[in-house]
Amino acid sequence: MTSLRGLDLNLLLVFEALFETRSVSRAGERLGLSQSATSHALARLREACRDELFLRTPSAMVPTPVANRIFPDVHAALDSLRQSVEEARGFDAASSTRRFDVAIPHPLGPAYAMRIRDAAAAEAPGVQLRFDTRTLADDAPGLMRDGVLDLAVDWIAASEDRFVNKKLFEDGLVIVARHGHPRAFKGMGWRELAKEEFVRSHRRAPERRPKVLQGKLWDLMADSRLIVSEYLEVPFTVSRTDCLGVLPRSMARIAETEFGMVVTDVPGPPIRIPIWLVWHEGRRRDAGHAWLRALVTREVQAAAAESGLLTLAMAAK
């Protein structure tokens, strides 16, 4: 293993600036160094790495294969150091340039993400938020443990130790049919529903599946001849066929107002699906992460309240 004992770590800042600007003069301007000092630093970098690192061309400094290979690791390490120093000084949302990664596999994940993004931009214009709305992979807990993923909004709580699961609101399930469907009506019972064909989304793996998707409800959909990838495809399909579909209750208002659908409850006791904010407790003292958690909680709960799924009393629990 190569020792860093004799390496001036300031040289890594010069390497990063050279790679990103492709110019000795512009790299120096970014770092507050003279062109001579930047050139001297490049010479020391070349000696330390035993490679030219950057080749002069008429238009720019072109990185060598070695420079291209090491830049991602150097850049990630410097970013991590910058964030650590920033957090040690205290998190200031207005001036921070941190990046956060959030997973929102809830069917309304894209809408929640845009709402969170807009709220963050108003408070912290320099903060970068990246959202992923795919169903969480099995390695999601590991990603959060390693700090690659900051938090998740999901209907499956983390079962491993040292994870925090905070309930944001309770969702549910409803059955939808297109406007003008010849047999659909509010209050349909199991007998009427059993006569209809359903479109359904792909079923999650057992460990990633809400338990309410079992029994009579699943039996209705099990033999569906039309299976789509995501819940967001269900209203599009239902509105153009005589198939019925099942949607989260949080999408009921969209189904009614934007698609003009008939929305009816699943027969029997109300279906309740807790929606969780999941994160690793190792981030508890991270002031920036605390800001992110508060922001996501506020915006997702506000969206749920607008859908009639959250009361102020429940939000305070």
* Cα end-to-end separation: 52 Å
Please compute the radius of gyration using only Cα atoms: 26 Å
Percent range for β-strand residues: 15-25%
CATH superfamily of the largest domain: Periplasmic binding protein-like II
Name of the CATH first level of the largest domain = Alpha Beta
> Which blocks of ≥5 consecutive residues have pLDDT under 50?
312-317
CATH topology annotation of the largest domain: D-Maltodextrin-Binding Protein, domain 2
Q: How helical, in percent, are the residues? A: 40-55%
The main pleated sheet reads as: 5 strands, mixed
Q: Globular, elongated, flat, extended or rod-shaped: what is the shape?
A: elongated
How many domain units?
3
Structural class: alpha/beta
Q: What is the topology, as strand order, of the major beta sheet?
A: 4-3-5-12-6
What order do the SSEs take from the amino end to the carboxyl end, as H and E?
Answer: HHHEEHEHEHEEEHEHEHEHEEHH
Q: Please, what is the average pLDDT? A: 85
Instruction: Tell me the number of strands.
Output: 12
Keywords: DNA-binding, Transcription, Transcription regulation
Organism: Roseomonas nitratireducens
Protein name: LysR family transcriptional regulator
Pfam family, one: HTH_1
